[in-house]
Fold this protein.
Amino acid sequence: MKRTFLASLALVGLFAFSPMMAPAQDAAEAPAAEAAAEAPAATGQIEASADAPKESAAAGHSEFYTVLFGSGWLGTLLWAALFGALGYFIYLAIDCGILVRASKIMPQSLITNVQNAMKEGDVVKALQFCENEPTPMANILSAAFIHVEEGYDIIQEAVSAAADLETERIMQRLAWISVCANIAPQLGLLGTVQGMIMAFANLGSGGTPDVGMLATNISQALYTTAGGLTTSIPAVCAFYYYRNKANQIILRMEATTMELIKDLRNVQVEA
């Protein structure tokens, strides 16, 4: 009887607690189901975030293309001028990097040959070396050797005039880099003014303004400013770098030239 009573009590307890255990099991299974349902959604968000940079890059290219060709003939002309200034600056920077060097302005082979000729006292031979290797320093030395019979004072004047001429030629090449550095931000400013004029004209045209056109006008103003500064900043840096480098080489060239022609002081001038 006792066993039957205990078994009956266990069955009653099982039926009594089963409604309470079911919600607990459902509550335990719910997060797992929600996690399983959210996993594909999270994967989709990751894929969408991975595709977002590609879409933004494509949108940026499309926007720049619209600004480039959708701002009227003046805007297109401004962009052509900006690209032209940038291309010309790159050409000048490469050209100066090749030519504004000590090996191009005052080659060591020329200095050695002229030194040997001057030790021998053969001015004609030294002049021949200068003619065979035309460089800025060779032109200055040639001016000295040509006037060797006119006295040392005339030689110094000829060397000074030739040195000023060669220095001006080098600096004129560098001056065009300065022109690119100065004109690029002005072109960018002109594009900014044009974009703002078109933007305010769109706002004052009456009715509902075209938001897309307004955005294009403002983009024109900002893109041209950025384009001008992108060209101007490296051009300014390149100009001062090459200018200082050229000044150092020119000072060395003048000192070396005076050292090479010092023996001409003893040349006798015939009446």
User: Anything to note?
Assistant: DSSP finds eight helices and no strands in the chain. Confidence is low (pLDDT under 50) at residues 1-33, 35-44, 46-50.
